[in-house]
């Protein structure tokens, strides 16, 4: 196993003309010059060196590039970077906090909810968004429907569903224990 | 992907000023970016309209519901008033695309969605819609996904929207705004048949913007159902879909609304079938007759003849489930949120 | 060998135990670097220009506009790409490629998507923008062959009969003619796309003045690519390194190198800068491999008791005009059932497609669809339970080789899966089981995949910092190879997994096998084990040598446990042994290869799938609602990852059964659905209840780990179980895949 993140420095020169865009990326302010037609996914991967967000189709057909924009799961391949002005963008790199895996990441590991791992960041970004969205039902059928924009060709769907439901339980427990702590 | 200028509109008037044949407005971007990458759409300038104040959903005094152009498909599908009064629309929205795309796509953008015809999407193919006069590779090509209704010698591309099928059944009005002010267009008149100008898809001038969509007052009390048939259970365009609303008096249909998707070049209101249903008992025979009428003018090609039967099946089942919902006196259970299609059809 | 090393594999503590993937955290945090996101200082980006016709000639390339665009560095094509050599394309010599024709060899166009140019620019966006402005003028010709399944080519005599690809025993034709009960049917399977989530990707860098080539490739076989590149670029193998640390899966289309990698490396050399090329999805699908369409005729003859007297399996599959790929559909058939009279033949038909290639369970999955559907047809003809029919023809030894099986538990698979599924509750009447609008159908099929091993080398270091390092040049394509190598090291040393580092996927490491054919586990682990033992031997030598911590002891008397050496009284941690001698590490090497066992036994995994479908005839809808499977795969080294493989195979089988089909326009052989939306694969909402059982019968005749491999078998047998369930529901026999709504409607339009 290798940590290959060192191979992904910030480097690429953007083409002229450019425009400046400011947004919050994984809780850090970012200000950068991008081409007017630069796509968020390419900016993340090639300009910012954040390779966790994957490209599987480049046309909103596979879900591998799913990120959160203002908390909503979106396909980064169909979004201009310039449209993100003032927004909060979260990628898989922003999912874990202070070195600790997010409960969804933990449950994906525990449930073996991936194989090749290429669709996995997108799966987890969709999963975290749906767990935060009270409008989406919590039963298996609702989760499967809501997750259907994330294709896993390895076919780890069963384990992904298990992992999501397990993370739901963990998050509920965490919330309950926090509430318990706050209650005298 | 070609270069373009990018700017942000601060007001509707400001946006409209930018509008010309070379300019594209971007809201969700799910159609635009897709097609720009394919070199199918080639705007010289893109105007981001997301900052415009068009995100409200409001009940009008006459009972209609006015929806801002920038309300996302997700927000609209889950809006309490939509779920309560227009479950058909909620179901149709949730049957479309994926969670991510619904989060991005807007109401106006969905109205402006473009066809999924593979020959339209491939610049190496002949397509009258993309390049007027170049021919239609779909007519004698692989046309499984193509239209049975509303086609012409020049184009048989299907309108891909689910939302619009529900709108065709519900009835709605579009508010358009341009340099000469605001105007309203009936939803039924907004999308054009291809005829010999398939590149002209709708009644929106280049310097106009859709600012709102106003739903007709809900048909009530009624039952409704949106049924989408496709190969896999989710995240696929319709092979055939049907949006049905029925108002019953006991066993008798007093008013029917029926629209079709996946089989027509525009969101397809089956008016004759509706007329044939009125006054009839809400039984299978009536639904089957309506289906026959709705598909009477179907013009199948080599690979889509099966959709004539499939569309009829969609109609019959959607009508049946709408009538069941009407008989229950509610179709709240049918809002379809989080349901796979296995549950979809179970009233 | 008196320590625990040998015996632990009989009673293992780590091997066979649930072990979270050791590379999991990298994949889950975005830190796993797949080829497409790697970056090297000064790197350029390539973007292909692909032929928009499938049959004809490239007449002219208009490049001026593209060359003038911002950031464009150069455009390569047939007139300016360096003249390279072809690879000998030999499996045996390790330089097999997926398509032997080089990129830009000439103006002739053989298939839609064939590369006609490569645009190189400073950024991805610039390269794509310029590629879209390259104008290619073609002279298109009529007569393109679009598919084996087009009516014109759908005949028994179509294609070239391969003389050396068949097998034969007894007198099958006479036996068939004289059989009391017969099945004679033709089966079609559409061409499929691997649609692996990560597209093919190459990052090529020439070093040392162009004398050395380093290639990052999303590859299932780095050594094959290295060797082929050595031939193609006329370099010593030692001067090429191919690296593949993380692979966004492959399913066979990344086993052997494709022309895009040659294009990338050639352009990088010409320009003197590193170059990254990630195939756009359409090119990945037109030009990066597919499972070819197949046409199979199955003839079964049996007596009234259901005993097979004749099996004749004739297959035709597609290949391209630029290479010869054989998808051997009949390869499992000779070993599947006891039958004295059998013939298998194979034909190939060249057409205007990119070259097909192995796709998960290549050949056999297609053949098993035909055979196991035909068996169901035979069961119906005999009015016999299909499970009973399979037991009645049970092959207790390999009918093809005559050798005994090393371990075969198919009977237990059939019984166990049937029991868990509730097969006994099946009402065999057609359409007899209903639930609301839906008809419920039950179907089953047996499945199999051969077990093979390849030669393999590995290296292990015991380090003074207390960690262990294991290296092998095989790859982890998502099956969990990193983790099972670490489990092996942990098993034999008692060192915690957290202290074990595993390195795979580099040609600088000891030569490892392809990640394919379900062979990686059985191939790699014995070599790793040998390397561990060799390293422990080295450590004992050190420990018992002059000044060693066990100076004067007999090395053979020392035992290994929990990362320590012990003489029964004293024990020292490995690190202490090394530090005492001021050593940084000791090194062990190991190798393994298939041996005499192949002469004594036949090796195959077997399994059984039971499938429930729900057919709603009123809306022509089929959904797979339940799958219960039992698999006899030997020992699962890491049960969750092994089960994940089978479950993934089941999902892919649902796609094969109901959705997947590459659509080639019959007029001109252009691929019309080369994207992820129009090529339909299963999504979350399609996933049924899945219950997979892995029987635990370690196959120690195959290797000391008892593992036979598990990547392919889950896919085999699913499609026929679905089609058989559809027969039960509808009374109609579905012999063509995928089973489309069209096919259902033909049956149910009046329902």
Morphology call of chain C:
globular
H/E topology pattern of chain B: EHEHEEEHHHHHHEEHEEEEEHHHH
Q: In total, how many beta strands of chain B? A: 12
Report the radius of gyration of chain C as a whole number of Å: 27 Å
Strand order of the largest sheet of chain C: 3-5-1-13-10-11-12
Describe the structure.
The complex is a heterotrimer of chains A (184), B (347) and C (751). By secondary structure, chain A is an alpha+beta fold. Chain A folds into two domains: 4-94, Beta-grasp domain (Ubiquitin-like (UB roll)), CATH 3.10.20; 103-182, DNA polymerase, domain 1. Chain A is 33% helix and 14% strand. Chain A has five helices and five strands; from the N terminus they run E-E-H-E-E-E-H-H-H-H. Chain A has helices spanning 40-47, 103-110, 120-131, 140-146, 157-182, and strands at residues 19-25, 28-34, 66-69, 72-75, 88-90. The longest helix of chain A is centred in the last third of the chain and has 26 residues, at 157-182. Chain A is globular, with a radius of gyration of 17 Å. The model of chain A is unreliable at 5-15 (pLDDT under 50). With 347 residues, chain B is α+β, with helices and mostly antiparallel strands. Among the domains of chain B are: 5-48, Uridine Diphospho-n-acetylenolpyruvylglucosamine Reductase, domain 2; 223-344, Enolase-like, domain 1 (2-Layer Sandwich). Chain B contains 13 helices and twelve strands. Chain B has helices at 12-18, 32-37, 73-78, 80-85, 87-95, 99-104, 107-111, 163-170, 187-190, 271-277, 284-294, 306-328, 341-344; strands at residues 5-8, 23-26, 45-48, 57-59, 65-68, 172-178, 181-186, 209-215, 223-229, 240-249, 252-261, 268-269. A five-stranded antiparallel β-sheet of chain B has the order 4-5-8-6-7. Chain B has a four-stranded antiparallel β-sheet with strand order 9-10-11-12. A three-stranded parallel β-sheet of chain B has the order 1-3-2, with no helix packed on it. In chain B, strand 2, helix 2 (32-37) and strand 3 form a beta-alpha-beta unit. Mean pLDDT of chain B is 94; it is low at 331-347. In chain C, the strands form six sheets. Chain C has a seven-stranded mixed β-sheet. In chain C, strands 7, 8, 9, 14, 15, 16 and 29 form a seven-stranded mixed β-sheet that branches. Chain C has 751 residues and is an alpha+beta fold. Chain C folds into three domains: 4-32 and 453-593, Aldehyde Oxidoreductase, domain 4 (2-Layer Sandwich); 35-142 and 194-287, Aldehyde Oxidoreductase, domain 4; 403-451 and 599-751, Aldehyde Oxidoreductase, domain 4, CATH 3.30.365. Chain C is built from 19 helices and 29 strands. Chain C starts with a helix and ends with a helix. Helices cover 26% and strands 25% of the residues of chain C. The A-B interface holds A 19, 35-37, 39, 58-60, 63, 66, 72-75, 77-80, 82-83, 85, 126, 129-130, 135-137, 139, 141-150 and B 1-6, 8, 26, 28-30, 33-34, 36-38, 46, 48, 50, 74, 78, 94, 97-101, 103-104, 233-235, 337-340, 342-343.
